[in-house]
Amino acid sequence: MYPASIPVDTELFAFTPEPPAQGTVLRRQGVSVTLEGLSKGYAGRRVLDSVGLHLRAGEFVAVVGRSGCGKSTLLRAIAHLESADAGEVRIGSGHVAADTRLMFQEARLLPWKTVLENVALGLPHGLNAAAAALATVGLGGRADAWPSELSGGQRQRVALARALVHEPQLLLLDEPLGALDALTRIEMQQLIESLWRQRGFTAVLVTHDVQEALALADRVLLIEDGGIALDVAVDLPRPRQRGSAGFAALEQQLLNQLLNQRKAA
Amino acid sequence: MAARRWQGWQRSLAPWLLPVALLLGWELAARTGWLSSRILPEPWAVAQAFYTLIESGELWAHLRTSLWRALSGFAIGGGAGLVLGLLTGSFRSAETLLDTTLQMIRNIPALALIPLVILWFGIDETAKLFLLAVGVFFPVYLNTFHGIRSADQGLIEMARSYGLKGWPLYRDVILPAALPSILVGVRFSLGLVWVLLIVAETISAQEGIGYMTMNAREFLQTDVVLVGILLYALLGKFADLFARGLERHFLRWNPAYR
Question: Which of B164, B253, B255 sits opposite A112 (nearest CB)?
Answer without folding.
Answer: B253
